[in-house]
Design a protein that fits this description.
Elements (H helix, E strand, L loop, with lengths): L4 H17 L1 H10 L4 H22 L8 H19 L1 H5 L6 H12 L15 H29 L22 H25 L4 H12 L17 H14 L3 H8 L5 H4 L1 H20 L8 H16 L14 H10 L15 H19 L8 E2 L2 E2 L2 H27 L4 H12 L7 H4 L10 H15 L3 H4 L4 H5 L1
Antiparallel strand pairs: 1-2
Helix pairs in contact: 1-3, 1-4, 2-3, 2-7, 4-6, 4-7, 6-7, 6-20, 7-8, 7-9, 8-9, 8-10, 8-11, 9-10, 10-14, 13-14, 13-15, 17-18, 17-20, 18-20
């Protein structure tokens, strides 16, 4: 595993960074005259002290981690951060148990968007902005993880995006650290532009910034119980549609566009498939619902486009209760939960590139049945897809189905009905946010669920966000003894 001090050191550094982030909602509450600023200061002090102590005890230059150490580090960071991020929720005046607080923090950092807080319209501003900050940090964190970490660990076919194995002309930046830094800058710029545009639609500065952070992160936390629909602002919805899409496209391609290759974004296979999938889902929902007979055509297009993109990308915003659009349309939304956006984006789900890999392999096999003597090679973005990549993608599909089925089964054992259990498992593993049904649907909330179900869903969020393999490999005997 290499030097285990590296694992503790990096976790400590992240704890200190999280403690610094807690000062922002503390300042917001202080300005607003809310006493919860003391809660954030106390939580910041505790996290900073813990993280600082760990850093001081483990600091050493030149610490190296092995491959095993990288797996442990990746999972441990995404466990330590929500554990500490839950402190303000548990200590604030919301009367939340630690179970609820941890669920909210895990949902935020994994950009899932499921919530247990009721009464967001009257919640303290510090708590509201803290939820948005968690999703914003989780969004940029998962981009860096997907670009710089998961390809090296060869997780679920992510080695397709391994920068070191690409041709020099296809490298956005030569080193992972530069990629992460440039990505963070683009991420920040998109957030600020989104906030300014939302502010221009009539939103207050606070709501504009809160929603900009959770939109670009495709997280979905809102400052209203009714989500974006509670603002009744069509201009706001159109802007969020645009930035949900931007957050779901590969950020590495933005780097290439900035460096003089603007057409790289459209030439990418998964980007084209992303837009084709959105168009197909939109057409399908339009055919299966009578929404156009209830509202004006432009409003109908906006409502369908907003909610289709929100569910497919795992953002989880709702501008309407699509559960009332009919059973057929609801089933389309259910399957859309699993799709996700592009690899190297803030979105979640199975990811477009994996569907593309499976499609290419199926196409080649069908052609080989027709012409048995031909030698055909499946390709992705013009490059041959190596067999180990295909194997990783197929394994991912199998594990995704297995984890989803197991989680849904365990949720039924906690007393949940089948609709809530199935959609809850789907929304957790795919990191979508709202489920289906009267309890956790677009107009519902996860607060009524039993504590056991909330811990199970939190585990599902972690598994889904880290592409399954990263966590599950830790439960194999060979990982620890070989």
């Amino acid at each position: 595993m290499g030097d285990p001090r590296g694992i503790f050191l990096i976790n400590g550094i992240f704890a200190v960074m999280l403690a610094a982030a807690m000062l922002i909602p503390a300042a917001v509450d202080l300005v607003a005259g809310n006493a919860d600023y003391q809660v954030f200061l106390a939580a910041s002090a505790a996290s900073g002290f813990l993280g600082g102590t760990v850093v001081a005890c483990t600091w050493r230059r030149g610490i190296r981690l092995s491959l095993r150490g990288a797996f442990v580090l990746t999972t441990s960071v995404w466990l330590v951060l929500p554990t500490l991020a839950a402190l303000p929720f548990a200590l604030a005046g919301l009367e939340m148990s630690y179970t609820d607080a941890f669920f909210e923090a895990m949902s935020g950092l994994t950009t899932t968007g499921s919530t247990v807080i009721i009464g967001l319209d009257n919640a303290p501003p510090g708590i509201l902005i803290w939820r948005s900050i968690l999703q914003w940090l989780g969004g940029v964190g998962i981009i860096v993880t997907a670009i710089a970490v998961l390809p090296l660990l060869q997780i679920g076919g992510m080695q397709l995006f391994r920068m070191e194995s690409s041709e020099s002309s296809d490298k956005a930046m030569p080193r992972a650290a530069q990629i992460a830094g440039a990505t963070a800058v683009i991420y920040l710029v998109l957030t600020l532009v989104c906030a300014i545009l939302l502010w221009g639609t009539g939103l207050g500065a606070f709501d504009a910034m809160a929603h900009a952070m959770t939109t670009v992160a495709t997280g979905g936390f809102s400052t209203r119980d009714a989500s974006v629909g509670g603002f009744a602002n069509p201009g706001m919805e159109w802007i969020i549609i645009v930035f949900m899409v931007l957050g779901s496209l590969p950020f590495v391609l933005y780097l290439q566009a900035v460096r003089g290759r603007p057409m790289a974004l459209w030439r990418d296979t998964q980007v084209r498939w992303f837009f084709l999938t959105v168009g197909g889902l939109l057409a399908l929902v339009a055919l299966l619902t009578d929404l156009f007979f209830q509202v004006e055509p432009v409003e109908g297009v906006r409502l369908m486009l907003f909610n289709v993109i929100s569910v497919m990308t795992g953002t989880g915003y709702a501008s309407a209760d699509y559960g009332e659009w009919g059973r057929a349309a609801t089933e389309v939304f259910y399957f859309a939960m699993f799709i996700g956006g592009c690899a190297g984006s803030t979105s979640c789900g199975i990811k477009i590139f994996r569907f593309r890999v499976m499609f290419e392999n199926a196409r080649v096999q069908i052609q080989e049945l027709i012409r048995p003597n031909s030698v055909l090679v499946p390709r992705f973005n013009g490059r041959p897809i190596e067999s180990h990549v295909t194997d990783a993608v197929m394994s991912y599909f199998f594990l995704f189905a297995m984890v989803f089925g197991m989680l849904a089964f365990l949720l039924t054992l906690t007393g949940l009905d089948m609709t809530t259990a199935l959609s809850g498992a789907a929304t957790a593993v795919a990191n979508v946010g709202p489920g289906l049904g009267d309890i956790i649907g677009p107009s519902g909330n996860f607060q009524p669920l039993p504590d056991t179900a909330k811990w199970l869903l939190s585990a599902g969020m972690l598994l889904g966000r880290l592409e399954l393999f990263t966590v599950l490999v830790l439960f194999t005997r060979r990982f620890w003894v070989s």
